[in-house]
Specification:
single chain, about 110 residues, alpha+beta, two-stranded antiparallel ribbon
Length: about 110
């Protein structure tokens, strides 16, 4: 078996990059960045509550503002970078645990 690094297939990579319709949001309270389409009932809707901490409003001395907002370009890029790293790590873990000799035979390595 060759020792080549497993990478995401082209379809998955393109799918991550081309999710322009996705609304990526960020919570200013707990700093959680998430895809609002996954938890929201309609596209292009920014949720009123953070799915991680549950915060709706942040109160400060200068006033109150919503905890969840649309993510900045930097936060969106960071979100997709982290998603890509998670997928690559999952792919590597699967490859390490599973030695495929043929399509019909799968041999598991003891960990």
């Amino acid at each position: 078996m060759s020792d080549k690094r497993h990478t995401l297939d082209a379809n998955t990579e393109n799918e991550l990059e081309n999710q322009t319709a996705a609304v990526i949001c960020h919570c200013d309270y707990c700093h959680y960045t998430f895809n609002a389409d996954v938890i929201s009932y309609s596209k292009y809707h920014i949720p009123t509550r953070c799915p991680d901490c549950g915060k709706k409003v942040i109160h400060t001395l200068s006033g109150s503002y919503p905890a969840v907002r649309a993510a900045t370009e930097e936060e969106v890029a960071d979100y997709y970078r982290i998603q890509r790293e998670i997928l690559e790590e999952m792919d590597e873990n699967i490859a390490e645990k599973c030695l495929i000799n043929s399509p019909e035979q799968v041999q598991y390595k003891k960990v």
